[in-house]
């Protein structure tokens, strides 16, 4: 019933949007003033003739007055003729009103009957949530679980169920929070810790934050053979500028692979970025790569507040920026710096880093192209 009331209101609004302007135009056209003006001017001509006969006005003045009044009379007559022409459009107005009042609603009803579902009963949210699961859409199922968790926040299994669903829906922050709740209530598991860290990394646009790294380290400690947490830990080492350690981590990871796994290609690309196409880094064995936080620092970060961990991340980013400004670095490190600034919400700093990177690699077209591609993906312009 509510649906049909809404349809009626919308139809009335559509009709009024057409009829009101037309009615105003009709009223303005239906009240011509030209005929009244003509009568006034004719009376004025008669008055001049009477005054001339009685000698109250000079002939020259009477002639001039007659000329002016005649001019005004002719103008009023032309205006009256135009208004009369507008009145003759009355039938067109009636046709337009008829279309708005009858054809428009009829067309709306016909379209709904053709493409809609008039026989379908109302489906309020409460009733949809109570329907069998196999008859519900993903959105309804998510709403159903969310309502359950709002009433039962200590249901750990409910958080386990909804966490991967959030991830599949492109909601990594919600997914990470759900995994954190599940781990708090049910205890840590290697796969939950890994998936939580992955969700945090995706939410940070690919930057492995200190909190995500902590989850990966805990997962790797629970299962040393698990590939996924080790993959992200190797990625974190590269992002922190710990080049030699990152190269060793990627090589160890690839050493245990058969070569057909889905992650192998990405791992090889990361290794090539760090060590070069031949797998040999010109910095390994020579000048040690600047180190990021030590293992003791990482362990201490577990007891940090969110603000302190954020400060640690900023310190890491500042250290990388200073090193690149003083000593230069690889294209991958410049891209890492730009991405880190975006994650921290410092877009202008990211733009400045892009300018510096472009200047540093102005004579290396391939690396410069890679830097510009990364900047485009981050929404940077370099201006």
UniProtKB/TrEMBL annotation:
Question: Do you know which InterPro entries this protein is assigned to?
Answer: C-type_cytochrome_biogenesis, Cyt_c_biogenesis_CcmI, TPR-like_helical_dom_sf, TPR_CcmH_CycH
This protein's UniProt keywords:
Cytochrome c-type biogenesis, Membrane, Repeat, TPR repeat, Transmembrane, Transmembrane helix
Q: Give residue ranges for domain Cytochrome c-type biogenesis protein H TPR.
A: 131-254
Q: Where is this region: Disordered?
A: 276-306
Q: Does the keyword Glycoprotein apply?
A: no
Ranges that cross the membrane: 95-115
* Family matches, as NCBIfam families: cytochro_ccmI (TIGR03142)
Q: Quote the protein name from its UniProt record.
A: Cytochrome c-type biogenesis protein CcmH
Q: Which organism is it from?
A: Roseibium marinum
